[in-house]
Amino acid sequence: MLATKFGAEAEAADKINQSGASRRWIRTAIEQSLSRLQTDYIDLYQLYLPFEFVAYEEILTTLQDLVVEGKIQHIGTSNHLGWQMVQAQNISERYRIQRFVSEQTPYSMINRRMEFELAEVAQRYDLSLFVYSPLSGGLLTGKYKAGQAAQSDSRAAVLKGHADTLDPELAENEYKFKIIEKLQQLANEAGISLADMAIAFTQSHPSVTSTLWGPRTFEQLEVYMSGSQMRLDTNVLDAIDAIVPPGKRIDDKEQTWTPDWMSTVKRRRQFHKSSN
Predict the structure, then answer these.
(1) CATH: 3.20.20.100, 3.40.630.30, 3.40.50.720, 1.10.1790.10. Which one for 3-137+202-257?
(2) What is the Cα–Cα distance from 15 to 69, expressed in whole angstroms?
(3) Are 33 and 40 in contact (CB under 8 A)?
(4) Counting C-beta atoms within 10 Å of the first and last residue's C-beta, which end of the chain has fewer, N or C?
(5) 24-28, 40-44, 174-178, 228-232: which has the highest mean pLDDT?
(6) 119-126: long-range contacts, CB 8 A cutoff, minimum separation 24
(7) In whole angstroms, what is the distance from residue 11 CA to residue 159 CA?
(8) Segment 138-167, tens digit of pLDDT
(9) Where are the domains of the chain?
(10) Residues 231, 183, 143, CA angle at the centre, nearest 5°?
(11) pTM for this model (two decimals)
(12) pLDDT level of residue 268 (50, 70, 90 thresholds)
């Protein structure tokens, strides 16, 4: 299956007319994707992030046209909240057009927010749920220790100052690394590696369709393959629940995007002084 996303260009502030999820840009983006991938169609075309200022009606009707034209087969989303998925499903039903058939979301032993709402939405609407970052950016490999500098070639070292959630030397991350130490102890008691336990954990949830991998090296690929072939017994899963409760995210800085309604202006009542 060939899958790709659109809308990731939104972070490029210097390309204000070359990003987003408007009808014009979706059509531009699909042509660029087809050209880069050297194909006539894409099996799964995914909306990278929710776009608060573009209505789902516009997005879905545009994608519907592309399906009719044979340029894409199915459509999906990424990094969406449960209520957004429900809203989109209702719009598709109302207009009798293509619906999103999948959602791609982060999920790991220390980021279980997906379980709180999205997993149930996926079950009720028969959505494929693809989870990514099962190792939480490398935190669940066991190579980082609280208060100790990361190895020079590690992701945490390379991103130091840019990805604070990975830095084991920051005092604000001490609690998170203490949690990871407890998970490491559990893995030791179970006779498996922390990374294997992390990969196997994501596959234990009945709503999860598939765990997405992102290895950079052959050694990392072997870790993913090893964990994917493992099944955790109930005692281990219960022990993980005792360390990180279901639905909980240890570090809220790991959220993939910040919605507009969380901005300061949206969180404060506006009072205007009357002029005399």
Answers:
(1) 3.20.20.100
(2) 27
(3) no
(4) C
(5) 40-44
(6) 119/205, 119/207, 119/208, 120/82, 120/207, 121/82, 121/85, 121/86, 122/85, 122/207, 123/206, 123/207, 125/85, 125/86, 125/89
(7) 18
(8) 899 888 877 666 665 666 655 666 667 777
(9) 3-137+202-257
(10) 100
(11) 0.89
(12) confident
- Give the total residue count for the chain: 276
